[in-house]
Fold:
Amino acid sequence: MKSSIQFILSMIIFGTIGLVVTYIDLSSSETALLSSSIGCLFLILVFLVMKKSIPWKLVKANASVLFFSAIALGGNWIFLYQSYNYTTVTNATLAYYFAPVFVMLLSPIILNEQLTIKKIVCIGIAILGLLLIVGNGISASGKGDLLGISFGLVAAAFYASLMLLNKFIHNLAKLEITIIQLGTTALLLLPYVLLTEGLGILEVSTSSIPFIILLGIINTGLGFWLFFSGMQNLKGQSIAMLSYVDPFVAILISGIILQEHMTIIQMFGGALLLGSTFVSENPSTIFSVPLMKKPDK
Structure:
């Protein structure tokens, strides 16, 4: 029960990211830099309080994967935060939730996992749902939504890369991995931000500072801590089901607090997208016949 509560709380926290970011007057790269830096420092404090130490030999053994996963994490945040600038939180969230589809498509090639008929059908339905969201969004709001949804899809691709890369990290605890990834992401983003934005990050408005702290400590640090603490004792099916608290909260906030509206067609498209990814994670044997698998060497 405790694990379920921790995981649900992490999903609620992640679902509020779009709301918090809308009140931060910085570029997406600057926001990503601050959130990763503050989040890393918070988790290091948690790590020290728990009297743990990072096994540097294992870090060295996984160094290349950790490096590329940090790039994926940074790209994920930059494009997700950018997506919020061009479209609604709902559209950005739904586009971002295309990440499981990317994972399903790449798993047979990268992880040698089976691609079943059920997953093929789910991928097709998810693509149809996305097309309904994109097509109706453009006709209703103009090309800005298309750009925002495109940024959301790029963020989803980076997140899918992160999930796949994490499969190749061995013998490191989730909290240790997160601290290293956040710290590395911050170090990689720092020169990029200085080259592209200069020192503008130092001129952030005072009204943005509380939300930057909130994003770093709560949405990033505490969110990831509860996420990994909760998932340690949960089964894969429970994790898949509870993960949908995140988009539900984001869409609820989008409608009630931000007063963003979706058309009936977009709602239907969102239901198809989220429903198809949910069904794909359900271990039902119906339509679960292997269709494609990377040949063994």
Remarks:
- Confidence is low (pLDDT under 50) at residues 285-297.
